[in-house]
Amino acid sequence: MSREEKPYPPERAKGPAGEGPERGTTRDGSPRVLFVSPEASPLAMTGGLGDVAGALPQALLRLGADVRVVLPFYRGVRKRMEGSAPVLTEVEVPLGGQDLRCAVREGRLGRVPLYLLDREDLYDRPNLYAAPRGDYYDNLERFTFLCHAALRIPGALSWTPDVVHCHDWQTGLVAPLLKGPYRGDPSVATARMVFTIHNAGYQGLFPAEKLEVTGLSRAECYHPEGLEYWGSLSLLKAGAVYSDALTTVSPTYAREICTPELGLGMEGVFRARGDSLKGILNGADYGRWDPARDPHIAAGYGPGNMQGKSRCRKALVQETGLDGVPGDRPILGVVSRLDRQKGMDLLAQALPELVALDTGIVILGNGDMRIQEALERAAAPYAGRVSLRIGFDEGFSHRIMAGADFLLVPSLYEPCGLTQIYALRYGTIPVARATGGLKDTIRDGENGFLFEPYDAGALAEAVKRAVRAFSRKKEWPRMVRNAMSADFSWDRSAALYMELYEALMGRKAGGVSAHG
């Protein structure tokens, strides 16, 4: 029997006797959940996925779940958790016909146990996924290793998950591995699989000839109903096809990915999983994003006392040099990746028209060099009116959120979006395109402004409507109150995930198939 055809029983780790949690259920029968993610805030993140994987497990823990998180021990994580100790000193992980060893270090995300895969040749790099010239050449190996290791940790720790919850293409192989090579492993064989798509635009595509790296059977898995995608392997498709339940990060995005416009070639796959596909809106971490106790801003404030927001505006004007903006005119904020998905090409085109409204504009972000250069050219004539800062600065992003009057989110598509949710809590009114989670969180004319067509003129018209509302002194405070009273806490979203887990735990597990 070849390696790819046989189950991989977990190698018992070499470590102190009795180390690690014991097998068993939670006191009230709540689910045991293994989170597998390539990112988790605040340790490692490139976007919203990191926020979700950092905050959702903590909300699930508050609801009684026994939840653990598996994450690579990246260079950046290593620097922040130098004191972490190995909970497992040597775990064997199969990769492309050979067995590699790694240590597993233990840390914490708040109170949630965190297991870090310590393998320097795979994860000790400057960035998570790519060098300046492109993706790391061995990303398939790096994230295949993550998927196999995640399924070996429960057995090594004598802990049996009820649900394995995986996130984005980097973890997509976990589902077919569970239903193929690991179906005979008692520590994970009965676990149900949830796969969350944070952005269908990132599909984890690799050459078909590299299938042997994964440890999956070509006969069982490489076909149009499996991993095969136009002659390549797709790890996103693997997760979507083989998982027991498929989720996206907002109800509207769940519908959008089933269309040719936003399914990005995989709409047929998602439509086929329609009965198992659910959109659950991401939540906001109000522990980090709360103007009443934000350490990054000039003054705290809340719905009952908004004087602090005026101080935050003055501090933002001083920090950014927006001395050309009249005191009674609004400031528009942008905190975003600088790429087309985020609508930053529209912003560059619309910038002169927005400045003509006597507004100030503060932009923070980095990304696509062409869009960055277009924004730099557009902003150059408007010293004192437009501030553009290239890069990412956590504290500055909070100060924009607190000091601006509006937040612009003109995305081409937006699976969920978190910045508009943060803006609402800060009384900073979002102006956004009506797509994905933006449409699910913003009520046009009540707590924000939406526009439909993807063009610079439509963005400018929406900002004009917003500026008119800003000048109406009776209407404006009501809109700000509406925004600040919105509740998108993780507790509400976590309760929906708990319902999903519990429904799955009532189903009988199966073998390898497209739908479990």
What does this structure look like?
The chain is α/β, with parallel strands linked by helices and 516 residues long. It folds into two domains: 32-283 and 492-505, Glycogen Phosphorylase B (Rossmann fold); 307-487, Glycogen Phosphorylase B (Rossmann fold), CATH 3.40.50.2000. Helix content is 35%, strand content 19%. Residues 1-25 and 508-516 have low confidence and may be disordered.
Furnish the topology, listing elements before pairings.
Layout: E1 32-36, H1 48-62, E2 66-72, H2 75-80, E3 85-95, E4 98-109, E5 112-118, H3 120-123, E6 130-131, E7 134-135, H4 139-156, E8 163-167, H5 174-179, E9 192-197, E10 205-207, H6 218-221, E11 228-229, E12 232-234, H7 235-242, E13 245-248, H8 251-256, H9 260-263, H10 267-272, E14 277-279, H11 307-320, E15 331-335, H12 344-355, E16 360-365, H13 369-379, E17 386-390, H14 394-403, E18 406-409, H15 419-425, E19 429-433, H16 436-441, E20 449-451, H17 456-471, H18 475-485, H19 490-505
Parallel strand pairs: 1-2, 1-8, 2-5, 8-9, 9-13, 13-14, 15-16, 15-18, 16-17, 18-19, 19-20
Antiparallel strand pairs: 3-4, 4-5, 6-7, 10-12, 11-12
Helix pairs in contact: 1-19, 11-14, 12-13, 12-17
